[in-house]
Structure formats: structure tokens, C-alpha cells
Design brief:
Length: 206
């Protein structure tokens, strides 16, 4: 998998130094600056400590199954065009090298909902999907809300969290403008994703 993060820091140098500090107990394979510079921190064939506790589908040790990309951003600002351009080019190369499917590109908040919120609602997932670098729901009809959690689990959201936390994570990625209680559109989006991209269609032992 590829897991996307933001640094929660405005300066790339500070983020780089933190990621290189053994006391931080965190690392990532790549760091992308606000001007689009790409810094490789860890070899792609080595494990980096970027994901932490959480899960995606049946995978609980996400660090061992993923490449982590940190993007310099506080979480309260738009991602710059140079950043996005560099990210897209980097992802194309990584996905080609490791045969990573677009539905195996996730955010930190997808695999650790409630504990992590990055890359956040300002990140343009739809832009990546248009280029085949991620996925986006098709226009879906409303679905019964009582099927939302089961559909979310089939898609990959298997972390043991409350319905409210799960909804927040799913909306941050696929419907960041939405507010209020779970509704039929939320359920319809998740039903569509679960049908087209069920997590168990991918070999989890690879």
C-alpha cells in the first residue's frame, strides 16, 4: 500500500529533522516540501515507522505493508500545486515498481480513524483519482444507513471505532463538505466503494 500523511508542521526542515530523530520514533519513506522537493528518507524495500496502530482490511501491521509519504502541511492550509505535482509523479513511479493498485492508496486517517486525521479534508483525493492514482466513488443512489458500517468494512475500514468516528474518517476523504448525521448519501457512497473495491479481492499476504 501507499499511505499519505501530512506533517502537521509548516516547515520542511523541521519535519525532516523530526523524522530523523530517534527519539521521535517515527519515520517515512518520503517527505515532500511545499515547493515540491522530494526527500527520500528510507529505502522503499525497508520498513518505516509512519503508520502506527490501526488497520486496513485484514492488515494490522500497516508499516510492514506500505510506503509512507509525508507532505509538508499544517492541516489548515491548501496543498500547493508543486507539492501535488511532485506527489503524483512520485506515486506513479512507486505504483509501477510495486504493482500497487489505486485502491491500495489510503490516508493515515483511513487506517487509524479517530487517532489520526491526516492528510485531512483539504487534500484533493479526487484529483489523484482522475489520474488513476487513487479511487473515487461513482455517482451513487442513496442507500439504507444501516448498511453503512458493513459496506465500510468490505471496503477496508475495519478499525474498531465508533460509528461517529468512522463517519468522520470516510467523509474527510470522500465527502468533506458534508455535515450532520449519517445519511443515505454516505451509505450510498460506501456501498459503491465496497462493491467496486472490496478489500478482500486483493491478496493480503503479498
Amino acid at each position: 500500500m501507499i499511505v499519505l500523511h501530512y506533517t502537521a508542521m509548516g516547515e520542511t526542515c523541521g519535519a525532516r529533522d523530526w523524522l530523523c530523530n530517534p527519539e521521535a520514533e517515527v519515520s517515512a519513506h518520503y517527505l515532500i516540501s511545499t515547493t515540491g522537493d522530494v526527500i527520500q528518507m528510507v529505502s522503499e524495500d525497508m520498513r518505516a515507522w509512519h503508520a502506527g496502530a490501526g488497520r486496513w482490511g485484514a492488515v494490522e501491521d500497516v508499516n510492514s505493508r506500505s510506503i509512507g509519504i509525508e507532505i509538508t502541511n499544517t492541516g489548515a492550509q491548501p496543498f500547493s500545486e508543486p507539492q501535488m505535482h511532485s506527489l503524483e509523479a512520485l506515486m506513479r513511479r512507486i505504483m509501477a515498481r510495486w504493482a500497487i493498485a489505486p485502491d491500495r492508496v489510503i490516508g493515515h486517517s483511513d487506517m487509524a480513524p479517530g487517532r489520526k486525521i491526516d492528510p485531512g479534508p483539504r487534500f484533493d483525493w479526487r484529483r489523484l483519482a482522475r489520474q488513476g492514482l487513487s479511487i473515487w466513488p461513482e455517482t451513487a443512489s442513496d442507500a439504507p444507513v444501516d448498511g453503512f458500517r458493513a459496506s465500510a468494512a468490505r471496503f477496508g475500514y475495519t478499525a474498531e471505532v465508533s460509528d461517529e468516528v468512522l463517519l468522520d474518517a470516510a467523509r474527510a476523504r470522500f465527502r468533506p463538505w458534508a455535515t450532520g448525521a449519517l445519511d443515505g448519501q454516505d451509505a450510498g457512497i460506501m456501498a459503491d466503494l465496497a462493491t467496486r473495491f472490496p478489500v478482500d479481492r486483493v491478496s493480503l499476504s503479498a
